[in-house]
Write a structure and sequence with these properties.
By secondary structure, the chain is an all-alpha fold. Helices cover about 50% and strands about 0% of the residues. It is built from nine helices and two strands; from the N terminus they run αααββαααααα.
Amino acid sequence: SIPKMPEAKFLDHFVFPAVDKIEDSVRDRTFMSLLKRLHQLPEDTSAYLHNIAFVPTESGKLCKPYELYDPRVSEFHTLFNSACFPAEPFRTEPTLNTLKTMGMTSEIRLEVLLQSAKSVSALEGESSQREQARALIHYMNMNIDRIFNHIRHPMTKFASFLWSAPSREDETSITEFTSSIVKISWLPVLKSPPFAMMPWPAEER
């Protein structure tokens, strides 16, 4: 009789290398089944699964779990476009919880704000850039103190009161954030003066 190929070997040889070539519905059913049995899979297969772009996003792009943002966090919808969120059928509560364990971002951190700025820089179309840049500026204006305070004082309010000074590591994180975000071209600017008589830098010839 023909020997049966182990599931892990079949996945490694025929499924994982051809994710982007499998019919969408078949691919989604296959990987949804794997996510439901993630804790039962061999360790090597489970680890490999973390680094495969198999989750479809709302824009149609396939992403790895750690490239995604949790759609249950409302702020993410302000900071990112649809290419950053898992699409159906990967939007169920159990599936999102599994993706979270595989690296999907589920909380606002300084790195998230940097990624949002980079996504603005990569957007095509001035109107899209302006809209998302405005949203990012508004979010930082309203929340940056809270984010910095969370970095400095991640413990309880009472413990935070006792530990009022930020650690050197915390200050490094904040310094790295500020030095990084000023290097990203994420703020749309006017290309011509808004008023005819307004002084404006001469065009380079």
